[in-house]
What does this fold into?
Amino acid sequence: MSEDRDKWHRWLTHGRFGGDAELRERELTRFLYPVRDEVLDRSGLQPGETLLDVGSGDGLIGLGALDRTGPAGHVIFSDISRDLLDHCRDAAAAEGALTRCSFVLAGADSLEVIPDAAADVVTTRSVLIYVKDKAAAFAEFHRVLRPGGRVSIFEPVNVLMGDGATSRFSGYDVAPVAAIAAKLRAVYETLQPPGTDPMLDFDDRDLVRLASSAGFGEVSLELQVTVRASRPPMPWERFLATSGNPLIPSIGEAMDQVLDAGEIRQLTDHLRPLVEAGTGQERRAVAYLTAVKSSLSTP
It folds into this structure.
């Protein structure tokens, strides 16, 4: 991992999977590739069309769209991270597709560098969770689409992922060490306060409302919630190195911030066997939203 890369690049290439390349490949196959395919399938992308992938990240959606747009199509990669745009540019070049791609440094709620009616399809994957002004983002999606254009969005709905139980941390039962776990949980709640942080201030109903208010004439949303009584086993060191998103510390870093040596030892003695055995609950809530701009709309 290159330390001179920005936090977005570092997280996507390292922190998300605790630096474990094998885990990354497993999650790509188990979850991320199916998400990519679902977003693109729902978009109705056709050969020769232009797709704008907002918050491109490591290029999962945009690179996956290249085969679908064909030689006459075009993919615009947009992200707030110059390092990730460079990553996408290198990946497109490796596929011999650089002439069919553009790269734009911009946030989801401020796409001014992209002209009105420039795209047939707008896609996002786990992007709005970082955007405070989601209404502005939807307005921008509507503006840059041509009449009849489509938006296809995947977003985690984090407010539905927790069960409200303070006896759990990261899905594991921490009741015997509840006071220590509460210190650890407070680190993350301070950085991302429930109800006000962009990741925690919306649900599926808000997404529908925002799309409708932006002027999309046809909106549909599918909410998928899954709860599993076990999790994939994970080596303890990988668990410590894992971070839920680019804006928060890894679990190991958070432990070092607020726990003394005795507390770390006590928490480790309790939690490590659960993590390594997969004895924890896994919860996931995600939404797929599609919307169509009226063919009579003006940008």
Q: What stands out?
A: Residues 21-43 form the longest helix (23 residues). The first strand starts at residue 50 and ends at 54.
